[in-house]
């Protein structure tokens, strides 16, 4: 393909076609310089006007917003107030803002506790830090594992192994930290293939990764088997619980058949878990956890030769928002594990356990409803609240486009072509509405086969057919370069 693109006229044609796609997605009319005169308080009114242009996400977004209800009341208002109260604070200044430092330590400890830190099998040394999101948690876990393995085993040409279903944050980590990345196959159930992982382990392997669950299909990898593998080769094993961390522990408590996934599994050295997803905190709050401090110390950066003084930082960011930390703490403290039960009414107030019960029940109803649509099939056997589905009868991306016209915003995937809905509290009251709209969308596409103008269907369709993945990569970079 590289040779073909050198043929006179071919490159010009390809560039023109790429630009057509980019132009469809590119925003326009953005401000490019400061206004001559500031708007003062009136800027708030302009921001409200801009907000009105956002899509109506309530009840109809896959994932994205995990808190139930209206954004102007209830839990939304509570964490907004907590964030506003500490918006000016910065945990970098330990002695100035001890309240925020305490909040962060307690968020980490509470998160660790639901993931096995109190169990004897964990070793009793679980520690960690808050980060800006799942990507930063993953980056830090990879960086720490790389440096830990260099110190323990002298590995200077690091490699890591992940299933093809692993999040793109691992590709980012590999690029940032100069680590060779192996993406290995999944089995027929879309779980990481342990044998394939084992085949790629060599003297330079620093870590392997397991998902609980995987972002595309909501399926949990064989964490125990991967843990045994990591232990036998004395390498690091990271479990990606970014989506599952605030669901799986409670689902297990409710009696769902959840396989082992946390620090009680021997071989697990680090875990990432997002508080801003099912933990119901504000966006920008995640936690990275380690089995012990010996591993975590490789996360820190300490500088001794700076004229500005001695410096040490635990995460990628220096200054961080104390407001986000306070918001996460308020979310966890206000919700609690089991909540309060009124004996007379037998009603449990909103809590993680009750939230999980509602989300899992809604997920099962949606999965059953999709399976009853003959043109569709569910991918694998979802373990949690993510249901991916595809079709051998209709173009699933065109179905997604029709759903978008009805206000739904789902996630599109490739290999296999599919879309998924990540069920949140927002979806609990609208399960039947979603299933009706899905049935109608499938019928529309079936009765009107052919390409749909607009949306992402043409883009995903073209990307899936391009044999040159470098061309697809160029397209993505062109789009991003034109958008920021």
UniProtKB/TrEMBL annotation:
Gene3D superfamilies: 6.10.140.2150, Aspartate Aminotransferase, domain 1, Type I PLP-dependent aspartate aminotransferase-like (Major domain). Its cofactor is pyridoxal 5'-phosphate. GO terms for cellular component: endoplasmic reticulum membrane. The lineage of its organism: Eukaryota, Viridiplantae, Streptophyta, Embryophyta, Tracheophyta. This is sphinganine-1-phosphate aldolase. Belongs to the group II decarboxylase family. Sphingosine-1-phosphate lyase subfamily. Pathway: Lipid metabolism; sphingolipid metabolism; Sphingolipid metabolism. Its EC number is 4.1.2.27.
């Amino acid at each position: 393909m590289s040779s073909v693109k050198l043929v006179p006229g071919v490159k010009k044609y390809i560039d023109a076609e790429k630009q057509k796609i980019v132009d469809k997605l590119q925003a326009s009319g953005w401000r490019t310089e400061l206004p001559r005169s500031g708007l003062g308080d009136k800027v708030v009114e302009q921001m409200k006007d801009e907000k009105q242009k956002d899509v109506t996400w309530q009840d109809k977004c896959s994932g994205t917003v995990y808190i139930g209800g209206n954004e102007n009341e209830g839990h939304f208002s509570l964490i907004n107030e907590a964030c506003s109260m500490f918006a000016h604070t910065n945990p970098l200044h330990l002695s100035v803002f001890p309240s925020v430092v305490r909040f962060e330590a307690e968020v980490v400890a509470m998160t660790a506790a639901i993931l096995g830190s109190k169990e004897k099998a964990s070793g009793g040394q679980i520690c960690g830090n808050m980060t800006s999101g799942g990507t930063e948690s993953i980056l830090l876990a990879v960086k720490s594992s790389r440096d830990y393995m260099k110190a323990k085993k002298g590995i200077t040409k690091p490699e890591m192994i992940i299933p093809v279903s692993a999040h793109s944050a691992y590709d980012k980590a590999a690029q940032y930290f100069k680590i060779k990345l192996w993406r290995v196959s999944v089995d027929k159930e879309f779980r990481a293939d342990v044998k394939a992982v084992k085949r790629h382990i060599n003297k330079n392997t620093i870590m392997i990764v397991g998902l609980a669950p995987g972002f595309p299909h909501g399926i949990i990898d064989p964490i125990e088997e991967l843990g045994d593998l990591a232990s036998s080769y004395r390498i690091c094993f990271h479990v990606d619980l970014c989506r599952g961390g605030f669901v799986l522990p409670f689902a297990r408590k409710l009696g769902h058949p959840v396989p082992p996934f946390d620090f009680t599994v021997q071989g697990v050295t680090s875990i990432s878990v997002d508080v801003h997803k099912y933990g119901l905190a504000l966006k920008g709050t995640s936690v990275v956890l380690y089995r012990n401090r010996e591993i975590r110390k490789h996360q820190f950066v300490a500088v001794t030769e700076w004229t500005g003084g001695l410096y040490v930082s635990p995460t990628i960011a220096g200054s961080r928002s104390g407001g986000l930390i306070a918001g996460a703490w308020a979310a966890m403290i206000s919700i609690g594990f089991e909540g309060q039960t009124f004996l007379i009414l037998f009603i449990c107030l909103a809590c993680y356990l009750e939230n999980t019960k509602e989300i899992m029940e809604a997920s099962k109803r949606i999965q059953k409803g999709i399976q009853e649509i003959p043109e569709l099939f569910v991918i694998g056997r979802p373990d949690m609240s993510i249901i991916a589905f595809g079709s051998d009868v209709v173009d699933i991306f065109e179905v997604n486009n029709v759903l978008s016209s009805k206000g739904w915003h789902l996630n599109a995937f490739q290999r296999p072509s599919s879309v998924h809905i990540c069920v949140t509290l927002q979806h609990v009251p609208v399960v039947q509405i979603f299933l009706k709209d899905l049935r109608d969308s499938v019928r529309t596409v079936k009765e009107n086969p052919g390409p749909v103008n607009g949306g992402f269907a043409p883009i995903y369709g073209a990307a899936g057919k391009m044999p040159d993945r470098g061309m697809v990569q160029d397209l993505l970079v062109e789009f991003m370069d034109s958008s920021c």
